[in-house]
Amino acid sequence: MQRRGWLRTIRADWLLYLFLLPGLLYFIVFKYLPMYGIIIAFQDYSPFKGISGSSFVGFKHFIRFFEDAEFITVFRNTLIISMYKLLFGFPVPIMLALMLNEVRKTWFKATAQTLFYIPHFFSWVIFGGIVIQVLSSKGMINSLISWFGGDPVLFMTQKQFFRAILVVSDIVKESGWSSIIYLAAIAGVNPSLYEAARMDGARKWHEIWHITLPSIRTTIVILFILQLGNILELGVQQVFMLYNPLVYEVGDIIDTYVYRVGLTEQKYSFATAVGLFQSTVGLILIYIANGLAKRLGGGGLW
What we know:
With 302 residues, the protein is mostly helical. The protein is built from 17 helices and 2 strands. The protein has a two-stranded antiparallel sheet. It starts with a helix and ends in a 7-residue tail after the last helix.
């Protein structure tokens, strides 16, 4: 009976399931099937022998990673930079969406949105080059410092500035694009709630605090959980484009460490083991955050 009911549902909404099919195929082909390759994290993998011919070594590569002298440094840097991005970067798209939602001039709103969205479409190769030029000894920032009588600062080689540069550049590049989801959620808020609030004498700040934010709370919680799951996966492109040996101590993260030690030296099993470690930590954090969100009365992913 259950099978017949399931087939009947598919027949009734076959067009919706047809639209769903490309997304399912994408995740099956590019996300689930490659999971078979996780096996090489527990092998001394050789491309010439293949997965079936490579010898099994258990947790050898995991132990090597944890015992490496650089492990504490790269793990600490990854965690600190991720927490900075979460603390300072996560609220920015929400605030940006709230501000754009209050703009009443259509032409100005469209222009502002376009300007905020454009950086997202630049690769980190291009955007990183722009950041380096702006912060160079003869760049815009140092030109302003010199104009006010100060001495030029080599920002890209100073440890105390590097993490801030990573966080701020990421916010500038991605916050506009990330605000789209919040704008869509805000558009779904019932306008009658605002009208009732105005009749009661509520000001704009009260409308935002008591109507808009509670109405999009589920969206905020879901995106926060998803970002928390990627807390150890900062991505190699941004850091690789901006860092240099002078700031390795504060800028070297797990992804760049894997690229440097695992991939350039063709230690594929080691790189896979570290990637599996990152994914496992992210999965655990997602489960914990999802459980906490449900206990606190907010919506979760499941």
